[in-house]
Amino acid sequence: MRRLSHRLLLACSITVLFFYSTFAQQAAATAPAKVPLPKAFLDSLTRQTFDYFWDLAGKDNGQQPDRWPSESFSSIAATGFGLTSYIVGVERKFITREQAAARVLTTLKFMQGLPKGEAPSGVAGNKGFFYHFLDMKTGLRYQQVELSTIDTGLLMAGILSVQSYFDGPDATEKQIRDIADALYLGVEWDWAMNGKDVMSMGWHPEHGFIDAKWQGYNEAMILYILALGSPTHSIPASSWKTWTDSYQWAKYQGQEFVNFGPLFGHQYSHMFIDFKGISDPYMKTKGIDYFENSRRATYANRAYCALNPGGYVGYDKTMWGLTACDGPGNDKKSNPNVSFEGYNARGASQFYVRDDGTIAPTAAGGSLAFAPEICIPTLVEMKKRHGTKLYDKYGFKDAFNMSIAYADGTQGWYDKDYLGIDQGPILIQLENWRTRIIWTTMKKNKYIREGLKKAGFTGGWLDQ
Fold first, then answer.
1. CA distance 54 to 248
2. 39-455 architecture in CATH?
3. Could you tell me the CA-to-CA distances from 267 to 21, 210, 227, 272, 340 in Å, in that order?
């Protein structure tokens, strides 16, 4: 469900004391002993991953490439992550606030000025939504990709993050806030419902709305919250209940949680919203919040890999992580009993297992804020064990698979590319764990707060 071009092929009153006692009991049952904090490694991971977004964005338009070093179109979700990454850069003193504000304003002005409409070409979007992929230079629709609801949502989440962060009185920061407002308020979320109770995954000018809809727990929590919070094109409050009615709660690998196989579905919304201590009506019945749900999903993913039912090379308790990522592809097949895939939504849950031996560092990196005690040792071990084949100029490359054996006797496939939508969770969630800066920034955003309240969330920081 993460890249709709690929997604369509893949698918389709608890008290505070009760909450904290539940978390403490679960943590005591699953968390290993504390490990030393590798500050130098985390500092370098932050800087190098940030450099992906700072170095590779289009200098005249701020668009982020879908991947590098392969030649690439722009990914609007990656552009959203890039906008948020500049906040990290300022806070870490990699760049000045003025440099970040200038880059942000360039990006937003470019997005605002792009042509939109129902034409199949020569435009960047329609009804406030943007096409999934855009030409890196012109910003126009790439080939015949869909007008993507989730990718627009992730772009808008990034736009709202800089709107709330750049709150100064100077002309540049005021322009940022004004253009961010115009872009967000222009998205016709109600149109994307297509008369249904749940939102469509996208639309094509050639044949209308896509049949696939956002239901079942996945990365679309942020999408619904943005749509609910809109004062111009809001969707009905009942949409949230319809969304949660399709959840699949089950016990898997010793953890009880709302299941979704690939870890990105447990990460993307949490990059922007701190769900710890706030709950909607559904989670109140379960006695946990969505933060704890993602923590349990992370532990379950690790447990599956440690069990390694597929017998893949290199899996263990410190070498795990299944999520959507690149893969070696069938052209690299060396085991007749395994179908090695290219880009795919790998994952493990009670109702979904997709595993071909390919591990993605973003699985552990994007879950670091939930379970640092198991994610940090894994990231450290990945770099130590695989060296520059996996960790190089911009931090972790997208994926690797040690079950691939080549004719020349070498073992292991390593991706040559970094992917923007996988770099973002590593950088942002690492910083959320260290300083909570993105979470703190987004708590100030009135649209996010309104969306959460309309969905029925209460408690914690939201009630303060």
1. 39
2. Alpha/alpha barrel (1.50)
3. 24, 25, 19, 9, 25
